[in-house]
Write a structure and sequence with these properties.
Helix content is 28%, strand content 22%. The protein is of the alpha/beta class. The protein folds into two domains: 4-31 and 284-420, Lyase, Ornithine Decarboxylase, Chain A, domain 1; 34-282, Alanine racemase (TIM Barrel, Alpha-Beta Barrel), CATH 3.20.20.10. Strands 4, 14, 15, 16, 17, 18, 19, 20 and 21 form a nine-stranded mixed sheet that branches. It has an eight-stranded parallel β-barrel with strand order 5-6-7-8-9-11-12-13, surrounded by six helices. Helix 2 crosses helix 9. The longest helix has 19 residues, at 208-226. It is globular. It starts with a strand and ends in a 19-residue tail after the last helix. The model has no long low-confidence stretch (mean pLDDT 96). The protein binds ligand LLP. The site of ligand LLP has 22 residues, from helix 10 and helix 11.
Length: 443
């Protein structure tokens, strides 16, 4: 599943002891395994090989450019959602043709950037956005391939904050609207609307919602074909589950086996398939390493107070997400064989693992059974490689964590820890005056 294990009794990432990384760069720190990133990308490519899909890693899940570079070298393209992510993908060496660009609120500036750089595909989320892309593409005399994001109205059975493919969300358009939009705009020479984009939500732990949404997309394609509108590209989005607990998610093969029979004949007829996995590649490729500051006992509850919290990893408090966590160097007898919600070992203590912020919702786990913890211990939070660092914030003026990439026996800092100077760098105690032209100023 990944290259993190408590070999020799203490947690290693590939060949490197995680405690040695914490000693060198401090905490909190995200530690990623390059071998895990490559393995997951390869497994996906192998599982879906019969469709030869373009696999575009979802940058939002783990946007560090060294992580992206590792994946570009492993052959993936990039799925981006902002001008900033376009810049990251390009900086990581991803050819623009291998970038797909989604997002409900693309600004003119971002669309111009995508056109200028010749981004491979724009995933369009609404009719007004499509009209804007047509206008800007015509102005730039540059045609762009576009796919329309369609909501197949399938329930992915995931958290309400990450459900996207039901009928009415801010993302994409429903099937009836899609048909009308293709009919109205399917022949525009600047925004070449010849793709369908699906993304039903994430994480999705069963294959049926994908099968059903692909069926609906194929039915739409057939209706369009009867109108003379040919779809070249079908982008299935991402959302494939990852193992937050050992064995929780179907593996890449199961998703692929469910969907490929439907798509194989279309691919033989020239359809290109795109996948946009984020979590399934990055989640298990990263752990968050935090140090216990204090252990507060004496009341009904024991609090393990860490230097990481909701500002470092938002998922537990935002989605009630479960992240397995365990001491980096557990006492003998507490070395875990697998990662499960309930660990059956003698001597565990139920604790709340909390962060330093002034918020009651600032926690990493509630009522979690852990080996006895003490001040100064290191705790590793697993499956944190996706939507960990990327959703972190500087709330309460804590600097952002460092990021380290391990490859074999080598560990490299790929984002240095922010200093207090970094934290204050964009602010000016006196403010910089904005020259408001006199005629627009209030009398
Ligand atoms: N494609 C599109 C259009 C997306 O919106 C997303 C994720 C993906 C692909 C990648 O999904 P993945 O394979 O990583 O599940 N912050 C939440 C997840 C939000 C997902 C947003 N869109 C979390 O921590 O679970």
């Amino acid at each position: 599943m990944d290259h993190f294990s408590h070999s020799d009794g203490s947690l290693h990432c590939e060949g490197v002891p995680v405690a040695a990384i914490a000693a060198a760069v401090g905490t909190p720190t995200y530690v990623y395994s390059a071998a895990t990133l490559r393995d997951h990308a390869r497994r996906l490519a192998d599982a879906w090989a019969s469709l030869s899909p373009r696999i575009c890693f979802s940058v939002k899940s783990c946007p560090n450019i060294a992580v992206l570079r590792t994946l570009v070298e492993a052959g993936t393209g990039m799925d981006v959602v902002s001008g900033g992510e376009i810049a990251r993908a390009l900086r990581a060496g991803c050819p623009a043709s291998q970038i797909v660009y989604a997002g409900v609120g693309k600004s003119d500036e971002e669309i111009r950037l995508a056109l200028r750089e010749r981004v491979g595909l724009l995933n369009i989320e609404s009719e007004p956005e499509l009209e804007n892309v047509q206008r800007l593409a015509e102005g730039a005399s540059r045609a762009a391939h576009c796919a329309l994001r369609v909501n197949p109205d399938v329930d992915p059975r995931t958290h309400r904050h990450t459900t996207t493919g039901t009928r009415e969300t801010k993302f994409g358009v429903d099937l009836a609207q899609a048909l009308a939009i293709f009919r109205r705009h399917g022949r525009n020479p600047f925004a070449l609307l010849d793709g369908i984009h699906l993304h039903i939500g994430s994480p999705v732990y069963s294959t049926e919602p994908y099968v059903e949404s692909v069926r609906r997309a194929l039915a739409l394609m057939d209706t369009l074909a009867a109108d003379g509108i040919r779809i070249r590209t079908l982008d299935l989005g991402g959302g494939f589950g990852a193992d937050y607990e050992t064995g929780q998610s179907p593996d890449a093969r199961r998703y692929a086996e469910a969907v490929t029979p439907l798509l194989a004949p279309r691919v033989r007829d020239g359809l290109e398939v795109i996948l946009e996995p984020g979590r399934t590649i990055a989640a298990n490729a990263g752990v968050l390493v935090t140090r216990v500051q204090y252990v507060k006992r004496g009341g009904a509850k024991t609090f393990v107070i860490c230097d990481a919290g909701m500002h470092t990893l938002l998922r537990p408090s935002h989605y009630d997400a479960f992240h397995f966590m365990w001491p980096v160097h557990p006492a003998p007898g507490f070395v875990p064989a697998r990662r499960a919600r309930e660990m059956s070992m003698d001597g565990l203590e139920a604790v709340d693992v909390v962060g330093p912020l002034c918020e009651t919702g600032d926690y990493l786990a509630l009522d979690r059974e852990l080996p006895p913890m003490s001040r100064g211990d290191l705790l590793a939070v697993f499956t944190a490689g996706a939507y960990g660092m990327s959703m972190s914030s500087r709330y309460n003026s804590h600097a952002l964590p460092a990021e380290v990439l391990v490859d074999g026996a080598e560990a490299r800092v790929i984002r240095r820890r922010e200093t207090l100077d970094d934290l204050l760098a964009h602010e000016d105690p006196h403010g910089a005056r904005i020259g408001i032209p006199a005629e627009t100023a209030a009398p």
